Hints:
- The chain has two domains: about 5-215, Spore Coat Polysaccharide Biosynthesis Protein SpsA, Chain A (Alpha-Beta Complex); about 225-270, no CATH class.
- It is built from eight helices and 13 strands.
- β1, α1 and β2 (about 35-40) form a beta-alpha-beta unit.
- The strands form three sheets. Strands 3-2-1-4-9-6-10-8 form an eight-stranded mixed β-sheet, sandwiched between helices. The chain has a three-stranded mixed β-sheet with strand order 5-11-7.
- It is an alpha/beta fold.
- The model has no long low-confidence stretch (mean pLDDT about 95).
- It holds the Pfam family Glyco_transf_7C.
- Keywords: Glycosyltransferase, Transferase.
Amino acid sequence: MTRTAVITVVHGRHRHLQRQRETLALSARPPDEHVVVALDDAEVARVIVGPPATRLVEAAGDSRGLPLAAARNLGARSALAAGAEVLVFLDVDCLAGPALIGGYRDAVIAEPDRVWSGPVTYLPPAGPGGYPLRALASLDAPHPARPAPKPGERIVQSDPDLFWSLSFALHRTAWLRSGGFHEGYLGYGGEDTDFARCLQAAGLGLGWVGEARSYHQHHPVHDPPVEHLDDIVRNGRLFRQRWGEWPMRGWLARFEELGLVRRSGDGWEITARATPP
């Protein structure tokens, strides 16, 4: 039997984690194990109750920014050491649709040299009764900027800029070929686009699975994300060094309009900082 592990990195958002675990337990084919990486968060252990079977891993923080890339790698190592063959990475904000685990597992087994993503719906704030965890399909409205195959369909696509780390799955051999996430990325932005480039460099394909639907729980955001200005510029500079171009150019252009950054040679430098409204 192919062993499947879900890997979730957690720093705060404990109620979101609890809801996610409820949806994993409701899955038509639940995961064999949920690897929860507590990233500089000593309170995670107290909120983990009930199924699915859980492996809690603790990861240290970093004063420069949350080491999300390193935390994902740690979670993968833990899952592989326990015998997992299919790795499903699911952001803590994402609720799992009932067919997500089975859809990913089938796609990964059918094409283990491809990394699979699933459609994500961004949800409005939960009402007094919370989200309908047993009827998430009633909220289905996948993000329009990404492929969204219907259940039962798979789409093969090669654009690494369409990859996102909210929800994806791959075989253990593909993970080992990829080299994992580059741990030089700290804080918000860039590490998932870098990872997609690494996948392509390793000869791994990309694709989308219609059954692997997830639902992103609402939380406040700023557009552009001025609270992550330092992370975006620092991580963008690292990406430029590795791949010859800047990522997140839309956000950088918005920051420039706000007077927060300016062009410097072939890059960007911070000129001011803004307090999120």
